[in-house]
Model the fold of this input.
Amino acid sequence: MTRSGRGLPIAAYLALLVALALTSAFVAVLAIVIWLPPRPPDVVPANVVAAHFKAGYEHMRETGELSRHGAVSWSVRGQAPRENEGSAHTRVTQVQLAEALALRPEQVRFAADHVERADTFVFRVRDVTDAARDGARVRRDRERLRREVERVVRERHRQHIGEAHTEDSPPEPADAEALEAEVRAEVDRALRAHRFEFDLPDLPEPPDVPDTPATGAVPTAPAPPAPPRRGVTIVAPAPDAPAVPIFARAPPGVALVSGFQVGAQLPDGRWLVMSQGRNWAELSWIGRAALIIGATLFVLSLLALWFARRLTRPIRNFSDAVQAVGVNPQSAPVREEGPRELRGAARAVNTMQARLRALIADRTKTLAAVAHDMRTPLMRLRLTAENTPAEQREKLAKEIEEVEALVASFIAFARDDPAEEARVRLDLAALLQSLADDHGAHGRNVSYEGEERVVITGQSLGLKRLFSNLVDNALKYGASARIKLRREENTVVIDVEDEGPGVPPEQRESVFEPFVRLNEEGTRGAGLGLAAARSIARAHGGDIAILDAEKGALLRVTLPG
Amino acid sequence: MALMAETPQPPRVLIVDDDGDIRDGLVQVFERAGFVASAAADVPAMERALAVTGADLIVLDLMMPGEDGLSACKRLSGKGRPPIIMLSALGDDADRIVGLEIGADDYLAKPCNPRELVARARAVLRRARDAETAPPGESIRFAGFRLDIPRRELVDPDDVVIPLSAGEFRLLRAFVERPQRVLSREQLLDYAFDNDADVFDRAVDVQVSRLRKKLERPGAPEIIRTVRGEGYLFAVKPVL
Done:
């Protein structure tokens, strides 16, 4: 009514949720594929593994301690490590390693979980150490070149001067500067040309000068000053190598292995074993993938939570509204919102509520009419009685009061709607005390004993009616009533005792039924008081029972405290 | 009504009921009791009678053809109207509360004892004459408490309903309508026990002590004070 439209069925909501979940799973996978680089392999060329092992083996032999290289784990075992079924490639590496270690092939093991063909591409990034090493080598070679060129130029110079004027001892300072400039020029030229060639006349070997550049291994400048020392060629170092490509072909003939385990027998007969450690690159890759999946799941669960709340809020509202209707039929109609099924239910409840309201209105009207039609003649009678002699008048008045009491109890029972009155916090002790006082003021013997203040939640008029029904009942059969109130753990217990004939056990249930009276002759009342009292007690979440008493009847009311 | 207090003229009562026999019977009862009684069969007739002769008290039937007593009472209340006693075939506590909340000064269920009706009429007239504050259908606040007059209930500062006996209610109402005045036992008997002939001074003391117990709060000042040799004093100023 408040919102147009029929709403989606719950199944549609659920399907939407499932579709959402599947979509986000798809998005997560897609994100991994798009945003993550290929999973890094942990393959290593077998010869590199072998070289590494060799270094570790030698370290062990020299120091007696295990190598502490982090990427692989080292151990010493009594038993030989596993042998690989292996490919020819690892077999070759094994034999080579044995040779390098000066061991027999059977003293070496080379096993790998996975062996790639040697001609696959290796995924490799040129790293900082590579670059640094290259740079250091180039600088060293240049320095060596410069020293060599300088030496040769000086030699040549000295010869030239010696020919000119042999008596001269030190060269002129101007000559020294010229010499320096000439050395620089020659070095530049050599670097540009990658080659430095010159001739020297026959010279005696300079025995006193230690020939440092000649003794060092100079791979790029193989310029040991040869004994003839005639045409000398110095090859200048190549300029900086171009950037190493990211994908490079593995060296041919070398297997790429992963999950390797290399072992070799130590001189004492034990085995030194090197195993591949964790592939940290792969771990971080897995971590990043997990992050993407986790983030997607997080977003999805937030979405699902929001969705669930959105779906259940109308259901909660509905349940609250229905509860309100149950307590008070005059409450506002239930809002028709949410899934289609719920809107249908809300509409049904609203229809029911409207019917209920109409019914209540009808009943109220009927009861008012009945009350009016019955009490108007009684009032007429009562007024007529005023004109009769006093003795007759009292008798008539008494009869009229009795009929009125009957009418009152019928109407009270028929309109009895415990839900109509609001619940308040009230002092039950004060209620019972004032009930006793009211009866006492009319000269009836009703007493109250118990606590002074017992606060419970209930309907003020309803509880008053409950207890005055019980007291009236006690007075009817027993001429006196004692009310006792005590508080127990979660309940309050009210006993109403009388000194009448009591209630036989077989009738203790039936007296609570409407229109049932204990003994038919001589009693007045419609037999509705106890029935009404019980229905009020039950509406409060309590009950009434008749218990054994020493004399008379004991009615026990329990109410939630 | 101020006029009434000066001259010993009998009070004028207007009886409004759609049933002729009841109308006549009630007129007889009131005249016998010394009132000047007139009758009206419905609400328009009642308004005509009020406009022509006026009345000191209206006895109003609740259920009448045409406009019923409740709506007439609601319409009349507010302006300086005479006090109203509702006489109704609906005798439930809930009906009584509705009637009093609408603004009736008293409410009696049919069939009632005619002499009780006359006694109530006298009490209503007396209250209208004496009380400083006679707000029918409302509640009076004092010292954190609230006296709900239609429901005859006391609501304490913690919002807990403290039911009162009929005697306690009448006594408390007499006090809150005459605050900060010393009231003798005789006055209290007069105000609070009008329809019970055989009560004595002792009964006042008993009721007062019961009422005190219900009003007692630790740390709070005494609300009903004893004035030795004279009577009692309601010591706080009520707020409407």
Q: What stands out?
A: Chain B has a mean pLDDT of 83.
